[in-house]
Amino acid sequence: MTIHNTWSFVHTERAALATDLAPLTDADWPTPSLCSGLSVREVLAHLTAAASLTPLRWFAGVIRCRFDFDRQVAMRLAEHLGATGAETLDRFQAVVGSTTKPPLPVLAMLGETVVHGEDIRRPLGIRRAYPEAMLTQLAEYYSRSDMPVLAKGRTGGLRLEATDGPFRAGEGALVTGPTLALIMAMTGRAAYLEHLSGPGAPMLAAR
To answer: How far is the CA of 88 from the CAs of 46, 107, 119, 120, 165, in angstroms?
Structure first.
């Protein structure tokens, strides 16, 4: 997957998420997301922040927050939250086509878009059919990386196999399931563990 193709996937997934969220009412926006302590609206603002943050601004924020990365995430989220859910969505729609990013690989930006998109969609009962090739590339990325979240380190000693695609990675106790569920479990989303099976699944659940 080239950088150009990866950005194309990022933009497609952002646009799809914006479309899915357009019908939300004021009562929907405070729904708790799969990100602990954050509403779906706050997670959307986090995605807007990531698409608005240059490496220079990211580093300046790190200094300002005295290398407290969680504090910087909270600060940037607040900058893009808006006064209402509709305004939060408007701000996200404005960066759908952005190629601005903090110092992360483009694949990490795609991962942020898909994973946080699921953090938002699942609690709202929204489902999306993702392209198999894209999910496979993303699963391969997380199987070898801990950026920006612990993923490779969470799956050490496990063999991951997708039941709906070609993704295979690792050695050890077997964990099988849909590629999306493997991605979400690799990034620490316990809600997707119910879709996984195999002798390694309990081990992954305990991490």
So the answer is: 10, 24, 16, 13, 35
pLDDT in tens, 38-90: 999 999 999 999 999 887 776 666 667 666 667 767 777 888 898 999 999 99
Main-chain dihedrals φ then ψ at residue 189, nearest 5 degrees:
-95, 100
Which domains does the chain carry? 3-124 (no CATH), 132-205 (3.30.1050.20)
What's the burial of 3, exposed, middle or buried (CB within 10 Å: 0-12/13-18/19+)?
A: exposed
pTM of the model: 0.91
Cβ contact 35:47 at 8 Å = no
Q: State the Cα–Cα distance between residues 202 and 197, nearest whole angstrom.
A: 8
